Fold this protein.
Amino acid sequence: GPVARMAAPPSLPEKRMTAGAPADEAVEARRALERVADLLDRRAAELRGDAAAVLGAQALMARDPELARRVGEYTEEGEPAAWAVHAACGAYQELLRAAGGYLAERAADLADIRDRAIALLLGLPMPGLPDPGVAHVLVAEDLAPADTVQLDTEGVLAIVTRGGGPTSHTVILARALGIPAVVGCEGADTLGDGSTVAVDGDAGTVVADPDEEFADRLRQRAERRRALLAESSGPGRTADGTPVALLLNVGEGDPHKAGAHDSEGVGLLRTEFLFLDRSEPPTTQEQEAAYTALFEAFAGRTVTVRTLDAGSDKPLAFARTGHEDNPALGVRGFRTSRVHPGLLTEQLAAIATASRKTSAEVRVMAPMVSTPDEADEFVSLARGAGLTRVGVMIEVPGAALLADRLLPRVDFVSIGTNDLAQYTMAADRTLGALPDLLDPWQPALLHLVGTVGGVGERTGRPVGVCGEAAAEPLLALVLVGLGATSLSMSAPVLPAVRRALALHTRDECRRLAELALAASSAEQAREVVRAAVHPEAAEW
């Protein structure tokens, strides 16, 4: 469709305004930040799920006392309110970027707060979405959460941004809305308003000015795919009837809306939403109520609960672990229980109580387990709380390499390919500059998945995959060939994965896995598999 570009954010005038008394300028700046926070809160109140959580977190950033303190420092130096906000936000952004990981990607959220506050202070139009009056491809340098949640899913065909990474809020919210998105697109700034582009969210490609033959072929492919996927329903099965459970990745949101999807349950319940952005941990009663509501929405189906994955890019104010130069390699996930054991034991008690109140088949697993001994420790804690189906996540190469000693100690495992990729390839998974190393088709990553899958087959232990790799239909076939017995993903992509499985037998999946493992690069692995799959799936 045609490109509609986001307008440039408000900028400071070349000529600096005369500043009033420093205290007055500081008050004016802080009032503007508070008005921005109020705007974000009002929008969050109209939403649910990830969208509401993202805007709520952004409102907290606008009210951050540290930001207000920095604004005061600049007004004391004689800066007018708008200039003080610009400088304070810029300094704070540098700190976030230096922290890396999840915090680095919040720098874009802070830029949106800055732009809105400056617009208020200078009487300029508030940043917002373009409205060309036709269905369009939205192109921007980056997209703020407050704008993303307002996207019209009928009017916006796709999103293309120059900035952003795989865990940016643009990606999270676009996926929830079912809008194709390509982020970190280097040529995005060359796409002019009104020019035609073809966006493939699956392949991550953007083609400028496609000829009519290409465009027609793309439209026909999209229509054919939509028709086929509309027929996709029921449990996951390969063409020869091998069951592959198709599950959902779920976080904060309406449990009943999540439960209404045609899935076999939940493969990953992220419980962090109960803990983040709080000064004190949630009570056992709060946790129990939240878990019970979700378990009831999936009555009779599997619900896999990941215990608190705190630390690294998800720091908790009430669970400090001390300074860490490299927090991704520090006290995070299950390791947090070494410092704050009560968080885990209380959470397990709440999960166990909620599970007894419903008919959901509740499983519990710990993130960032690195050794067989750690697996033993978690199993003991979970069983002591009254939980009967206990597993761990395989996100660390050490755990994958010792799968033959680890899997016999648990009831199941789930492979988190996002973290396993970053630790295998020594590349920060939130860093947009290294997408090739973090590609889930990397043969080194697939070899580790195959190691775990092979042990699962020999020991009879279920092996799930709940990273982003499970959401790519062609790669899902390879994962099943490597031994995965379940795949967990966001709801919009589930029909395509179900359809891809139905077109291939288990032996064909194994053959595709062998082709991928023999490749020398992620690109080669993807292409050799695409060339070997069913013609319909090859178009995906």
User: Anything to note?
Assistant: The first strand starts at residue 3 and ends at 5. Residues 236-538 form a domain with the TIM Barrel fold (CATH 3.20.20.60).
